[in-house]
Every structure is written in C-alpha cells, then in structure tokens.
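Hey, can you fold this one?
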Amino acid sequence: MNRKLTSGFLSILNAKILVSFVGVLSLPLVVRALGADGYGNYAFLMSTFSMLMILVSSGVTEGVQKFVAEERDLAGWREQVLGFYGKLAVGLALVGSVLVAGATWLGLVDGLLSPRFRIYFYLLAGLVVAAQLRAFVRRSLMGVGLEKYSESLVVTGKLTWLGVSLGLAWVGYGVAGFLVGKIAASALTAVVGGFVLSRHVSIPRVLRPSGPSFPRRELLSFNGLNIVLVLLLMSLFHVDIVMLRLLGDSAQTGYYKAALALAEYMWLVPISLQTLLLHSTSNLWSNDRREAISDLATRVTRYAFLLTALLAIGVYALADRFVPFYYGQAFVVLLEPLTLLLPGALGFALARPLYGINQANGNLRPLIVATGGAAAVNAGLNYALIPLYGMSGAAAATSVGYGSMFVLQVACARHLGYDPLSGLRPVRLLATVAVGAPLIVGLDALVSSTLVAFAVVPAVGFLAFAAAALGTGALDAEELLEAAELLPDPVERGVRLIVP
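Sure. Predicted structure:
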C-alpha cells in the first residue's frame, strides 16, 4: 500500500482496535447491567433500528464517501457533493423519525410487541436524526482524507455511549438508558465532527445550490441502488436475531447475540479494509486500472484469510475457557452456536474487502445480485432451522449465508473485470491451517490453568502459525517485513531481527 493508503488504513484500524478493546472490557458490564432478557431486547431493538437506517442513511453516507473522494473537472466539486448529500441526509432523517414516532403513537408497537416497548421506539425516533448526522459527518471526513479525525470520533462516541448508558442503567433505566446513551454519543460526535469538517471545506459553498452541470441523476441512481444493496447486506447481520426473537424468546436471543459478538471480533481488519477500499479504489476504477485492482484484491484476500483463520482457531481453542470467564457460567450454552458460526465468519471476513472494491466500481447491479443471493440463502435457512434447532439452527444458517457471500463476491468481481484469486496460493493457505490448527488446539489442551492458557496460547499460537505461513510459502518474508512497518517500532525491529 502507498503511504496515503497506509495512513488511512492505520487510522481506521487503530480506531477499531481501541473500540473493540473498550467493547471487550465493557461487554460483560453491559450484559450484567441488562441481564440476558434485557440484553436480548436491546439487541432486537438495535437490529430493528439498523434495518430502518438502511432506508434513511445508506445511500447518503456511502454516497458522500465515494463521490467526495473522486477528482472531477467541476469547480467546487467537493463542496457541491457535501451540500447535495447534506440536504438529503437531513430530509431523510426527519422523514424516518416522524414515521417511527407516528407508528408508535398509532399503537403498532403495542400490538406487535408490548406496551413497554413504546418508550424504546420513541427514543429510536430521536436516535434516527442523531445517528444520521453522526454518520454523514464521519463519512464526509473519510471522503476528504481526514480518517484520523473521523476515526477518533468513533472512539469518542463509544466511550460517551458507554459512560452515559452504564450510568443510567445503574440508576434503573435499563434498556431506555442505553438508547439515551446512543443519542447523546451520536449528537456529540456529529457536532465535533462538523466543526472539524468546517475547517477543511468552505461552508458557504456547501450551503449554495448545486450548479446545472452537477450530476444529480448519477448520484441519486447510486443512492437508490445502494439502499437496496445495503438492505441485503444488513439482512445478513440482523435477520437471524430478529427471527430468533420472534420465533424464540429474549433470553435465547441474548445468548445468541453474545456468540455473534465474539465471532464478529474476527472482522476487525477486514471491515477496516472494506471501509478504506470504498473510497481509495474509486480512482483506480475511474482510470480503468484493473490489473492494479486485481493485485490489490488478491493480496488483501490472502492476508485476510491468514489473519482470520488464526483468530478462528484461537477462538475455537479457548472458547470453553473464555466464555464462562467473560460472560458468566450461564452463557456456556452459546459454545455450540459459536463453533457453528466460525466457518461462516471466516468466509464473510474474506468477502468484506471484495465488497468494498466492487462497490467502488459504481456499477451496483451485479453486486446487488451477488449480495441478494447470499441474503436469500441466509433468510431461507434461518426460517427453516430456527424452529427446529433454536439458536444452533440460527448459527448454522447464518454460517452458510456468510460463507456464500465470499463465493458470490468473487463471481461479482470477475464479472466486473478483475480476479481476486489470481495469486491467492490456496494450497499453501490450507497447508498453513493444517499445520497451525493442531498445534494451537493441542497447546490449549496441554495447559491446565485458564489464566496461563490466556497468556500462553495466543502468543505461542501466533508464532507457530506465522512460522507455518512462512514455511509453506503462504506468506513471503518480504511481505511479513512490509506488514511489520505497520506495527509499533519495537515490534518492527523484533520482526526484522528474526526474519531474514
């Protein structure tokens, strides 16, 4: 990666690492503050909210991130894009908020769920506006190359939400307190981010109407198709939770959501890459540099496989120790769903960067077909398996849906004119897993102490897996040294001393 791409990736990755670290430390507090029943209801509300925000936000936020990053021969292009999407973002947020509040006032929530959910949905109506402004500001900052600010705000928002939410839960507000925390954190980051953005763009120009040559139709077409695309993508994240809550109960949903949270930590780097590649490959597509795109996609896919496979093996090996230690003994029931989720989580990790590259192309119809196929598989299997097997059925169905996403994204990539598997080295990758997995699982079995296992298995397992990757040729020494440049100086120097 070039210097600018590396800088953007590090800003996004570092923020996600910090947010994940805070999440790992705070999740047991959140689960204990809400209980399995309350946590299940909160997960259901957040899944419902996320599906709603697809219609309100997805076409706006990803559109501004993509188009503001492009270099076009049009005076004031950046400000015109920001102005167009800013007005659209506010309008859609107000419409969405009114619809949620109106539906709640008419009694639809009482009829479908229960009266206690009424206050939750009124708070969601306020969250629609706050979250829309936060997302628009963050994506705008990313599009103009200010990832160091946009991602710092993500960390600030996480800490604000956690502090407000746990404080309100402590005094008895429960799920409502967590929703208020979301509103407060979103509003704060939107205000601060808007101030930062105003220092780098001309606000008077942003507020002016777009010129006659501004390609409104192109942007609106991307928005409409992107809403469909993101709706299909987000269904992969939330259909299982919504179906499990409606067909099962809140406690079972809470256990399953806890298993998903552990599996999703494996996506830390792939999601960072997807976020970066959406705007960083737009210019490659506009200049028709398909060979460069193929090379970048292949390397990213290979690196994502090695890292995510290592994490999946580690989660599998340590889950029986970690889950009761982390969540409490009652959550041991999630071990089976977690194990079933791991293969699909690996496949979905490989799909995330390709999804970002395919989306940056701008031709969303093939991407909609590919993502729609995975969504259909996921929804159909969840509907068939949840009534029979509960949360284990949801995990198995979702795992297959996640895995199909990678296959279909590869097919979409080839349709668009590049091959993300051209230099993947699949035999060497599988050989690395075949060598590394038994070593890591066997080491865990040899260590009797839980705390010692937490300290020893990840460190020794990483070294063993890295050695296997170098030995099989899945990873070159030169590539390892390039990756080491992204690490802190003491670690980089250590790697350079060991690797020839």
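The radius of gyration is 23 Å. Let me know if you want another pass with a different chain boundary.
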